[in-house]
Amino acid sequence: MSAEKHFHSEASSTDVSTNEYQRLARGNLEKTIKHQVKKLKNSNVPKIARKLFKHNITRGRSLVAKAIIDAQNESPRFTPVYAALISIINSKFPQIGQLICKRVISSLRNAYMADENEECFAMTKLLAHLINQRVLNYLVVIQLLHAVLENYTDDSIKLAIGLLKECGQHLSKVIPQELVSVFAKLDNLLYEPSLNKHTQDMIQVLFTVRRDGFETYPSIQSDLDLIDTNDQYTHMLELLDLCDPEKHLHDFLYDAEYEANEDKYKETRKTILGDNDDDKLSSNASSNEDQSMITAAKIDTSSSSPSDNDKEN
Asked: Where does the MIF4G domain lie (predicted)?
């Protein structure tokens, strides 16, 4: 590489106004978000949220939504933990919470229509816990329950049972009469000859769970009840809403006001995290790490085609 080309390359890797810098910064942001979400567990939800807030997650809102939904889809048993993280993010950045809700509803509808049971049940579980965490209004789950019980199959009944186990405790507090109506429909199906015995047995078990006050399926575990009701923003979405998943946000988009927008986010971050020395130190370390990773990424991706970096993986 000639000295002139080398100088141009180095300048591009540090000049925020260049397409190259912004593309590499986005790739670094995606790696950071995935890394933090991967480390999530019951005991560190607030800590992970703070680490995410140190980075411009409004710019990377699609990356946040994708990382959390993908992780939950792979490990549905940790759904309450992912929902707790979403509740914290939503309390500070409702636009990110709304995007996640839209994508969950859209993915659930698509999976249900395509008979993709595994994804359907995973998204149903996440939907239930978004309602438990007051990120999403309960109306959508009532609409879903009526839809799957109206033209029922064994699979749709199982979906309804799973949904009721996960958020039945919450629904019994906020809309008890609606819950009575749903259980009346299930009661009528107990001896429906078109259902197999296993499904009927599952209905019987659900009635036992209900009689026990859903004790084995708490709406929110005590260590995951992290946001005060007054601080939470609840999104009013319906099952039949278009719920545009905004897939265009997956695309890399050059920002002519990149530096100004980053400065705006830093001000927002201060109101969330405060401006103590520890946060300053962590922020500076993060900034240095970002710059070194961007420079390294430039070397690693020098032979990649532009389209490889345009989309989220």
From this structure: 30-213
Question: The tokens 């109306």 sit on which residue?
Answer: 139
Q: Do 91 and 231 meet the contact criterion of CB atoms below 8 Å apart?
A: yes
Quote the pLDDT of residue 311: 38
| pLDDT tens column, 143-180 | 999 999 998 999 999 999 999 999 999 999 999 999 99
Distances (CA, A) of 227 to 37, 155, 170, 220: 19, 34, 16, 11
C-alpha closest to that of 237 among 100, 126, 117: 100
HSE toward the beta carbon, residue 61, CA cutoff 13 A: 22
CATH of domain 20-247+265-310: 1.25.40.180
Select from 218, 222, 270, 267 the least CA-distant residue to 50. Answer: 270
Beta bridge partners of 235: 136
Instruction: Look up residue 252 and give its two tokens.
Output: 């890399």
φ, ψ for residue 152, nearest 5 deg = -80, 150
Contact yes or no for 90/233 (Cβ under 8 A): yes
User: Within the chain, which residues score under 50 in pLDDT?
Assistant: 3-11, 277-313
Q: Which residues pair with 136 in a beta bridge?
A: 235
Q: What are the CA-CA distances from residue 22 to residues 25, 65, 258, 262, 298 (Å)? A: 5, 20, 8, 11, 11
> Tokens representing 265?
């986010």
Give the up-direction half-sphere exposure of residue 1: CA atoms within 13 A in the CB hemisphere. 10
pTM listed for this prediction: 0.83
Question: Which tokens is 82 given?
Answer: 């992912």
Spell out where the chain has E strands: none
